[in-house]
Design a protein that fits this description.
With 165 residues, this protein is mainly α. The protein contains nine helices and no strands. The longest helix has 20 residues.
């Protein structure tokens, strides 16, 4: 059975406001979603270098604020155990693997935001609602792996183009 993440309605963060502007002005570059991690839009080589070096812990904090989920839910989403997360907070940096998973969650949320034209509440609800096209699992559950995240992105693309899924 699909486990639904809690969804709340709060004021949008500055990152969400910036994302909404990017989406509405159709200025989204290939990695526009890194804005949700508090990073400037980066080209692919620079982004790869940042991930390999490990993102700062503040990137994870940005993701938590932007997803508007409890830190435990985001830690589960990006597969970082609570004690490990506490260590990363002290160290100030995530590992490359953890950074990759944080980036993946940001990418999925960014693409859902784009589909819903910057409406963060609608994107959060959609990501937390089981979908028939995803074997009645939530998009967040499906996004726990790269293969699943790509399937969620494919579904978002089909919805964007009006393809019944």
């Amino acid at each position: 059975m699909a486990r639904r993440l809690p969804v709340t309605k709060t004021e949008d963060t500055p990152d969400i406001v910036a994302m909404r502007r990017i989406v509405r002005e159709k200025r989204a570059g290939p990695h526009f979603y890194v804005r949700l991690l508090g990073l400037p839009t980066l080209d692919t080589p620079a982004l790869l270098e940042r991930v390999e070096a490990g993102l700062s812990y503040s990137a994870f904090e940005h993701l938590v604020r932007n997803l508007d989920l409890p830190i435990e839910a985001v830690a589960t989403l990006v597969q970082i155990k609570r004690r490990t997360l506490a260590r990363r907070c002290e160290e100030g940096r995530l590992t490359a693997e953890e950074s990759d998973r944080v980036l993946r969650a940001s990418r999925v949320f960014g693409k859902a935001l784009a589909l819903f034209e910057g409406d963060a509440a609608a994107a959060r609800i959609w990501l937390s609602t089981p979908a028939r096209a995803l074997a009645n699992r939530t998009p967040w559950e499906f996004s726990a792996t790269e293969v699943g995240a790509r399937e969620v992105e494919n579904l978002l693309g089909r919805l964007e183009h009006g393809v019944f899924s």
